[in-house]
Amino acid sequence: MAPSTKLLLLSLYLLQSLSASFGQDAVKGGYWFPESGFPASSIDSTLFTHLFCAFAVLNPQTNQVSISPSNNASFSQFTKTVQSKNPSVKTLLSIGGGGANRTVFASMASQSASRKSFIDSSIRVARAYGFSGLDLDWEYPQTAGDMTNLGTLLTEWRAAVATEARSSGRAALLLTAAFYFSPNLNELKYPAQSINTNLDWVNVMAYDFYDPSWYKFTNSHSMLYDPSGRVSGSSGIQAWIQAGVSAKKLVLGMPFYGYAWRLVNANNHGLLAPANGPAGPDNGAMTYNQIRNFIAQNNAPVVYNGTLVMNYCYAGTTWIGYDDTQAISTKVSYAKQKGLLGYFAWHVGADNNWALSQQAQQSWEAEISGTGHYSRSRRIKNGPDGVLSEMIYLV
């Protein structure tokens, strides 16, 4: 083979690897987990570009990644199942999750040998189960040392993924992570430089800001904007960018669930209304599907607040804050207009006849094509929340 031909083939391979790992098209993502009771076979994968299968577990003794026996069958068939409807959808194996023991991850990341065990086993499992990538969901590093070790872990993980791709001749596995909504976590700072260099993107968990088990007043748990400046999805995104993570490596998280508060007074049912705990189990958490059923069964009024970008409904002493199609549309448009890589949902099984997923896809495509535009009408009167709202419709 002539040297020029070899050089051309090498260039094409490197281009393919870079394209696979660092030249991502838009991400329209969603997480799925078997404990949701929603079968993977029911996922409309045509609405997504990437689907995350959650969660693989980390063995505290061996520091190896594995699939629990109860999930083995569904995980092994996940890629084949979702690609039967959409052959181009990519699947990623997510590791950890909110229920995982954070100290196990901290211990693993603290030593070179245990990091290698984690990395090598994660690659091996991803390939064996047919995934296109790996997703780290460590909730959350607790010390400055944890953050430093996280940065080292990502550097070594990226190098191992690249080495495996070269030796196997396959496209490099995608590497992503689900992180806190902001790079600043309890006075700690995520290793932004390592994140920007080594991850294909970050799934920014822009939700769970408030919940009724801690806060004695109603509020949005996933507001895009907050005029008070306390916490919001947009402030978190801006902080990530200011920390040095490219907008093109940020994916905005959107919850397909809400929280139900128990009102102190049924006649005071706006934002920041006094409440005395969750209205229901699981800290008041309700899937979008459950919320739509609640609205229908109780003829509950629905309010969209365009200042914060959120919805709420109420009936009796139950108040539920959540994202409906208006909020989803505005959030997706924000992500596109700010140059973000895309959006993701937690979780796909919580949707209601794919209303939110379809709205998200349509809003993103409208922004891309330029065929859509936004008309705005302001409600001059104050609503029950006392906040001026701006209604935004996709037309």
UniProtKB/TrEMBL annotation:
Signal peptide: 1-23
GO BP annotations listed: carbohydrate metabolic process; chitin catabolic process
Record CDD domains: GH18_plant_chitinase_class_V (cd02879)
Annotated GH18 domain residues: 26-367
EC numbers for this chain: 3.2.1.14
Top-level taxon of the source organism: Eukaryota
Gene Ontology cellular component terms for the protein in this record: extracellular region
Single GO MF descriptor: endochitinase activity
Enzyme class: hydrolase
Record key words, sorted: Glycoprotein, Glycosidase, Hydrolase, Signal
Family to which this protein belongs: Belongs to the glycosyl hydrolase 18 family. Chitinase class V subfamily.
Protein name: Chitinase
